Amino acid sequence: MPRLKIDQGKFGSLISGFMFTCLIVSLIMGVVTDSLGYKPVAILGFATTGVCIFMLAWSKTYGMTLVACLLFGFGAMALNTAGNTMIPRVLFGGQSEAAALNLGKIPSSAWGCF
Prior knowledge:
By secondary structure, the chain is mainly α. The chain is about 75% helix and about 0% strand.
């Protein structure tokens, strides 16, 4: 916030922009994954999130940071959708989708127990 010279309201707008983009793009990524498969969507997600992380690190203006947050929503939902599609195929040899999804989607708070 000090580097961008923004207040808490503008910071909240960055988070809101990211989350709103995630909301909309999650619907679109499902259709794209069904059409193209999970591999291109995963590659797009990794590339987009990588670029956005560098954009966030180097941005000096609020506008560039907002663009990075919006694009980060695209990358995050591409990875989320690709992961949700890939998990049942990878774990348990594709035999038990429910068990694979339960194991593959352990909440991050549960990892602290291990």
